[in-house]
Amino acid sequence: MALFRCGLKFRALSAALRNNVACMSSLPQPIKNPEIKYNKVFINNDFVDSQSGKTFPTINPATGEVICQVAEGDKKDVDLAVKAAQDAFRLGSPWRRMDASERGVLLNKLADLIERDRVYITSLETLDNGKPYHVAFNADLNLVIKCYRYYAGWADKIEGKTVPVAGDFFAYTRREPVGVCGQIIPWNFPLLMQAWKLGPALACGNVVVMKVAEQTPLTALYIAHLAREAGFPPGVINIIPGYGPTAGGAIASHMDVDKLAFTGSTEVGQIVAQAAAQSNLKRVTLELGGKSPNIVLADADMEQAVETSHFALYFNQGQCCCAGSRTFVEEKIYDEFVERSAERAKKRTVGNPFDLTNEQGPQVDQEQTDKIMSYIKSGKEQGAKLVAGGNKMGDKGYFIEPTVFADVKDEMKIAQEEIFGPVQTILKFKDMDELIERCHKTIYGLAAAVQTKDLEKALHLSNTLRAGTVWVNCFDVFDASMPFGGYKMSGNGRELGEYGLEAYSEVKSVVIKIPQKNS
Amino acid sequence: KAAQDAFRLGSPWRRMDASERGVLLNKLADLIERDRVYITSLETLDNGKPYHVAFNADLNLVIKCYRYYAGWADKIEGKTVPVAGDFFAYTRREPVGVCGQIIPWNFPLLMQAWKLGPALACGNVVVMKVAEQTPLTALYIAHLAREAGFPPGVINIIPGYGPTAGGAIASHMDVDKLAFTGSTEVGQIVAQAAAQSNLKRVTLELGGKSPNIVLADADMEQAVETSHFALYFNQGQCCCAGSRTFVEEKIYDEFVERSAERAKKRTVGNPFDLTNEQGPQVDQEQTDKIMSYIKSGKEQGAKLVAGGNKMGDKGYFIEPTVFADVKDEMKIAQEEIFGPVQTILKFKDMDELIERCHKTIYGLAAAVQTKDLEKALHLSNTLRAGTVWVNCFDVFDASMPFGGYKMSGNGRELGEYGLEAYSEVKSVVIKIPQKNS
């Protein structure tokens, strides 16, 4: 398993990306033209055309060219999928009768199959999303496999309690599956977002109707095929490729979907949450946007802080909900930090994601590219100082230069709104209390980070910042066992860890009268 | 604003030791015990529930709820987690912040306790809108909370109407979490307002049409009494009332006869009269609604075997009413009546019964009256309802989670589960030189 040894730590990964060493030699070569095997709607363990017969193209963002057509699911397909899911969930069904531990066995089998086909799957992800192959292989796929294995372990540990109530009663709770779980996932980490959703849902015994992003439907469909091979019964997992307003909206409003999990923008999160309440009050969890502060104190190791802050913003082409997109630097070291950051950004290698020497690939599509370029324009117009990048790159595909703005003020759009691209904004601060207030002047609260050697400052900031995850002297360190989610308008609820199971159970209390209670 | 100020970093409430929050909650329980007679009398005056029931049931549960959550205050724990790599990682369970809480009129003191207990135990600050029908006891409790020593701004209570005061809370951009108990219809409205404004976290406790199943092998006398209590408790004004009594065919006629007899014996009148089992409904609007359901029951062909009329010229009294030969599609079998109207339906086959129990938007509670072990466990494990009672009904405890499946609600109150909604989980990951297990 030498292939996987080097991929585990993000700092090691970051260093490796910078030095282009170590991991590359043991990394298996990508398949640059992976064959597209599955591009249809997946219901009841079958791949079928959409009810309308319509298809949509999925694009290779490195070239702007169409990879293939994919079946376009809409309300009718969602209806069929929900019915299939309901049937798989009926009392007495194979899935409902299955031992909990067996659910764990199936999840581990799925992880095994992903490991078996890791090179193909990674290549497909790189083709459809544009993220560099070596990052997808070492980071995304590593976390995906671990997520399924982590939740495999939870399957037979979804426990209720016996409770010593007052009176002559025997009382207990059961944690039952919620039922039909509608899951809408985004395009920035297609495989990983699918794993974060399927892992806990299936561990708890639910059935799933998943809408995948129109920009990146291919890997999710391949995973569906593997799930079928692993032995998940028909109807337990159903996948609908399609668009948000149509297929996604149908799920959010469906009267027979019991729970909705949505990852995407805050704006759309508000729309689906309202649709969920208006239809049947289905339970809702949301993972939305962010404008996370990354704080660099004067005592931090300058070289590490620059590199960590660079990684915090540019990872995944800047397309992370939790990107460190407001870099707050202490006045004393500001100028040096800006200079080093600009230098680092200029050194960042951008290009064909299948080329193992590239750190950055294209943005996912034209729409995102236009949005990012418009933010760059706004940064210049509002008076921020452009110290690196600022332009698109090349004629084909959606490449943008790693861009750095300095002298950024809190009120500027680039400091308030989520850019979701390779644009680093560096702000200056002096006073700690004022800093905390400035960090909080946002509708978001997804993540934060502190770069410092000082124990008290590290603990004070991490304990007081209102953010779902706080990283200290690192960034984007994820683990299937650590809950992730937003304060405020960055989301509702948590994914991963034991906390991630809460949303996927429905608690039932049972109280039985007995002749005589004894403790 | 007052709540936000009480919640600011460095405030007395934020700096208070967690165990001290528990001391305050216990003090509040002490003061309620001290003033129990006065408080109960006020509740009876404002709500109409019989004094002896309010004293023994409501106040008992209220005091226990505050003490139960007092015990949890210093046990709101995060975890340290063995993540991959050279990191020290932990979670913290922080207070959510400003909690908007909207409570109903059917159990004014108890609904207030269910809301304040977990919220305060977890260190939150509260803005509570009390029902316009029954604002008085909640305001007295606020006075006791002040006496107990809760800092200014931690608890704030707004008497007022739903669409105005309640709506303002649901849509407020600076309220972090909303807890609402009331009708399903209004629950949908506030949940949408919450999402449209600032995506505040939402928990809901809504309506129900809970099935109470009587099997042929049940003790007849006990089953009749339990089923009577299941419906008529609190003048039928319970979200979890056993409002669809499913009786096995074999014993149906006898059960109906005995239930009608029991209903006719139910004593109704002045709630301060200790011999009365039932008081008035809470207001004119509820009374009109209930009478209209009684009318609909007659019109749709159910058989009226007891009651059916209003009682007296003053107040909002309704006779204990029983309908037999009720069919699933009738309005009185589908919609929440929230009054003293028992509907008795017949069943034959167990699988068909479970399906009929599930043919509703609700899923709050259910009950089974039987001596048979396998039937009891099968029904309690398969019925999609938040609480299932076996050979009893309306048994509550601060330690047992309560809440609805489906459109009866989102989330659970009480027990350890009841704390989940009142914490915001934070993950912290710190790089260290060398991780060892």
From TrEMBL, chain A:
PROSITE patterns: ALDEHYDE_DEHYDR_CYS, ALDEHYDE_DEHYDR_GLU. The active site is at E287. Keywords: NAD, Oxidoreductase. Residues 47-510 form the Aldehyde dehydrogenase domain. SUPFAM superfamilies: ALDH-like (SSF53720). Its EC number is 1.2.1.3. One of its GO terms (molecular function) is aldehyde dehydrogenase (NAD+) activity. Belongs to the aldehyde dehydrogenase family. PANTHER family: ALDEHYDE DEHYDROGENASE-RELATED (PTHR11699). This is aldehyde dehydrogenase (NAD(+)).
UniProtKB/TrEMBL annotation, chain B:
It is an enzyme of class 1 (oxidoreductase). The keyword Nucleotide-binding does not apply. PROSITE patterns: ALDEHYDE_DEHYDR_CYS, ALDEHYDE_DEHYDR_GLU. Keywords: NAD, Oxidoreductase. One of its GO terms (molecular function) is aldehyde dehydrogenase (NAD+) activity. Its EC number is 1.2.1.3. It comes from the Eukaryota. InterPro entries: Ald_DH/histidinol_DH, Ald_DH_C, Ald_DH_CS_CYS, Ald_DH_CS_GLU, Ald_DH_N, Aldehyde_DH_dom. Gene3D superfamilies: Aldehyde Dehydrogenase, Chain A, domain 1, Aldehyde Dehydrogenase, Chain A, domain 2. The active site is at E205. PANTHER family: ALDEHYDE DEHYDROGENASE-RELATED (PTHR11699). This is aldehyde dehydrogenase (NAD(+)). It comes from Magallana gigas (Pacific oyster).
